[in-house]
């Protein structure tokens, strides 16, 4: 499915509309998943990934792992923004999206 989504995103939508605000919104899901995984691990005594195991690694190591993981998501998001902008330049000028009344 991810490959089909990539094909759809590349071929079927307008590009050049993404901005850094979108990147921050995209980081909300991995951040919420991180917090939920650590909370569940503390409650259940088992963690979904060994690099989140606070009992085995300690808070400082898990915090460093969390920052590194979020940095990866941030870098991937920045790459998506650059690709979207490059596709937008190739397609021509971006027309602003106007909210339509329902």
Characterise this structure.
The chain has 102 residues and is mainly alpha-helical. Helices cover 72% and strands 0% of the residues. The chain contains four helices and no strands. The longest helix has 33 residues. The protein is elongated and about 50 Å long. The protein starts with a helix and ends in an 11-residue tail after the last helix. The model has no long low-confidence stretch (mean pLDDT 86).
Give the overall average pLDDT: 86
For the termini, the CA-CA separation is 31 Å
Strand content: under 5%
Number of helices: 4
**Largest sheet: number of strands, sense, barrel closure:** none
* Unreliable stretches covering 5 or more consecutive residues: none
Features of the shown structure:
single chain; mainly alpha; 4 helices
Concise description?
The chain is an all-alpha fold and 102 residues long. Helix content is 72%, strand content 0%. The longest helix has 33 residues.
Write the layout of secondary structure elements.
Blueprint lengths: L1 H11 L7 H25 L9 H4 L1 H33 L11
Helix pairs in contact: 2-4
């Amino acid at each position: 499915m991810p490959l089909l989504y990539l094909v759809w995103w590349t071929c079927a939508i307008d590009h050049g509309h993404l901005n850094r605000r979108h990147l921050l919104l995209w980081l909300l899901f991995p951040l919420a998943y991180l917090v939920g995984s650590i909370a569940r691990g503390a409650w259940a005594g088992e963690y979904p990934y060994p690099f989140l195991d606070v009992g085995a690694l300690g808070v400082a190591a898990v915090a460093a792992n969390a920052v590194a993981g979020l940095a990866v998501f941030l870098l991937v998001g920045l790459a998506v923004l650059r690709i979207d902008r490059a596709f937008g330049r190739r397609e021509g000028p971006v027309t602003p999206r106007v909210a339509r009344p329902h």
